[in-house]
Structures are given as C-alpha cells and as structure tokens.
Amino acid sequence: MMDALVCAAPGELVLERRPIPDRAADEVLIRVRRVGICGTDMHIFRGAQPFLAYPRVMGHELSGEVVQAPDDSGLAPGDPVYVMPYMSCGTCAACRKAKPNCCMNIQVLGVHRDGGMAQYLAVPAGFVRKAEGVTLDEAAMIEFLAIGAHAVRRAGITPGQSVLVVGTGPIGIAAALFAKLQGGVVTALDGRRDRLKFCRDHLDTDHIVDLGADTPKVLAELTGGDFFDVVFDATGAPKAMEAGFAYVAHGGTYVLISVVGADITFSDPEFHKRETTLLGSRNATPEDFDAVVAAMRAGRVPTKALNTHAAALAQLPQVLPGWMEPSAGVIKAIVAC
Known about the structure:
The protein is α/β, with parallel strands linked by helices. It has helices spanning 39-46, 93-96, 136-139, 142-155, 170-181, 193-203, 215-222, 238-243, 268-274, 286-297, 303-306, 316-323; strands spanning 2-9, 12-18, 27-36, 56-57, 61-68, 80-83, 86-87, 107-108, 120-124, 128-130, 162-166, 185-190, 207-210, 228-233, 248-256, 277-280, 307-312, 332-336. β15 (248-256), α9 (268-274) and β16 form a beta-alpha-beta unit. α4 (142-155) crosses α5 (170-181).
C-alpha cells in the first residue's frame, strides 16, 4: 500500500491509502520522491481547471527512483529519474510532426489522469528519463522550466533582440531565464514587486517594470518607441493578453504561453500594420527537457533560489492554501513524498 494525496473536490485534499500500482510490460514503476507545485495544481484546488474531473491525484512536476523497468528501457532499479508528464499517443497529426506537446489525444499527468502526489507511479518507459547530474529537487523543476524553454525556442530569439516577459510567475521566470540565455535584452513586467526583484537579482533581467497606468509609456521609453522584438505573455489573464499586442514591435513576435477559458481579441489593423507573428506555446518537447538539464548541469539555472518552499506530502492540505496567497512569496514549492 502507499499514500496518495487526492483532491476529492475543489478545496478538499485527502490523504488516502491506495494499492501500489501494477506496472504494465512497457511501464516503469517509480518511487516518487519530489513533486513541484504548479499553477495548474492551484487551479485544480480552486476548482478552476477546465480539463479535469474530480477526484484527482494532482502533480505533474516530479522526480523519483526506478523500482522496476522493462529490460530494454535503459533504466535500472535505483536510477534517479524525472518524468515528461505529457502522455502523447504517438500517432496523431501532431505526434507525426514530432510535436507530442500538442498531441490531439494528450493525457497530462495530474490533470487528465492521476499524477505524482503519491508514493508510487507507473508510467510508460518512453516518458521517463534519467536525472543524471542533477539532484532530485532540481529534477522536479525541469518540467516548468522546459515550458519556458519551449516558448523561447518557438520565438527563435537571437542575441541582442529586445524581449518583454509579461507575468513573472514560475513560467514567466522560466521564459525570462532562457530568453536571457539566448542573448535577449530582457524586460520583465508585473504588478508584484517581489517577483520583479527576483528577476533582477537571480536572472540578471535587464529591466524590470511595475505594472501601472503609465506602463505603455515606460515600455516605449525603454525601447526608443520601437517596443519589443519578442513579447511573451505568462499572465493567464485575458485583458493582459490583449494588452500585450500593443507592446510588439513592427515585424515582431507575440508568444502566448498562457491559456485561458476565454476569447482573446485584438485590433486587426494594428496586427497587420505590424505584420505580427502570433504563436501559441504549449507544454514542451523532449528537446526542451534536454536543454533545461544541460543548463542545470552547466550551473546556468538558479535552482536554489527558485526552490522557495518545501513540505512533506502529508502536510500539503495544511500548507497549500497559504502558499496560494501572494504574501507567501512562493516561486517554486516542492513536496517530498
């Protein structure tokens, strides 16, 4: 038997005893050790995740150790591993284009199927990778960083380009980090001064801007009236996403990392006048996970600073509501299972 933390209904987390899963022939049985808390988990707890049915074991940012694995998997008992949590079908139009991140039949751990907030988890071997050269805490942060790395790769940033990241939660921080590593001149925009300070102190962000009535004027002054070659939205707020169109330079690119349950509108004349490139960015691909691990091994990711909070699995029902408050200052919280 094992412990599993179940979100039985919005606002209700229950620690249950469940059988250890039996792995299929192509699956790896993992002893889960660490799970990162994501904005998705907070949305599930609030009851604001549109793709989920309760009850659900949350958690898709996870690392652990192999218990059992197929003989041909390259994995052995005791290996430290991380999981790419997007269970893709391998056969749909997106998968055939090597884009499993937007698989037509995707099953995301902790959303469409039970995830990692349990002591054991069985997943297909193709989604499990050795966590070589990184700690288990760091391995549990790879997934959210890969989302930012994927968005930056989608944008094709080149050295010297002006980059604006709107929204400096974990995903925005990841985008700012990898945009900077690509040589971008990065500006971070947010209404939270603590997160802007984090970007300045730990990511070497070139400029930080407080959200306010004069934001367009400040951004124009920073860029000599040109605005930004690349703009990323990581706010999850429809009005912010709409406002971001005006911050894109002529000939520039706008990348929507955020996804919201709403229609997004923009001025068609302004869009065409700028010949804006509009991109959606969903999840991440194996290449993005590899890029994050390489950056971690090279010491280019401030993992100790990112990991601001920690708790044991049994403590999460008590601490999660507090972590969701802005005053808690959470960047990345990691749960030990």
